Amino acid sequence: MRLLFLAFVLLSTIFLSSVIFMFFFNNQKAYVVINGKYFNTEIAKTDKQKAVGLSKYNKIENNFGMLFPYQTEDYYSFWMKNMKFPIDIIYIRKNKISTIFKNVDFPKNQEEELIKYTPDEPSDLVFEINGGLSDKYNFKIGNNVKIVY
Predict the structure, then answer these.
(1) Which pTM value belongs to this model?
(2) I want to staple 92 with a disulfide (CB 3.0 to 4.6 A). Which of 58, 60, 76, 125 is the partner?
(3) For the purposes of burial, counting CB atoms within 10 Å of the CB of 22, is it exposed (0-12), middle (13-18) or buried (19 or more)?
(4) What is the mean pLDDT of each run of 10 residues along the chain (149 residues)?
């Protein structure tokens, strides 16, 4: 009986550990570091998360950003649909900044035509932060980008 109880406890522990691991893995956060500036980062992994992006927020802190990872390099276009604040859109290729759209303004009304922002070269990551921070922190094309998971 004692052996059966120990087996139950062991299997329960393994199951619970797996559930906890999957919860944290699926809600993974990261840090993005550019020019010594650290950003707490939310990762948009699903198509729905990528479509909504930062528009789910009314504002964000200056040490926060959203990372959009892609499986392959391509010319991924972004727009400001439903956004409520200006952002910088930073395209990343091979862990270096490849294109920056600075202080991209949000639409003032529903009738305003949405501009699509497309990088100069293919990228596999896009990072969005508060508008103006790329200038404030002197981010430039070619800067190294470190992502810590």
Answers:
(1) 0.82
(2) 125
(3) exposed
(4) 53 44 54 97 95 96 97 97 97 98 93 94 98 98 96
Read off φ and ψ for residue 54, nearest 5 degrees: -75, -5
Q: ∠ at Cα 20 (15, 22), nearest 5°?
A: 95
Per-residue pLDDT, 111: 85
Distance CA 80, CA 54 (A): 9
List domains and CATH numbers for the chain: 29-148 (2.60.120.1140)
d(C-alpha 4, C-alpha 45), whole Å: 41
Rg (CA), the chain: 20
Take residue 39 and report the two structure tokens written for it. 């950003």
CA-to-CA separations, 4 to 7, 9, 91, in angstroms, rounded: 5, 9, 56
Q: Where are the beta strands (DSSP E) in the chain?
A: 29-34, 37-43, 64-74, 87-93, 96-104, 123-130, 145-148
Q: Beta 123-130 vs 87-93: how paired, if at all?
A: antiparallel
Residue 107 DSSP symbol: P
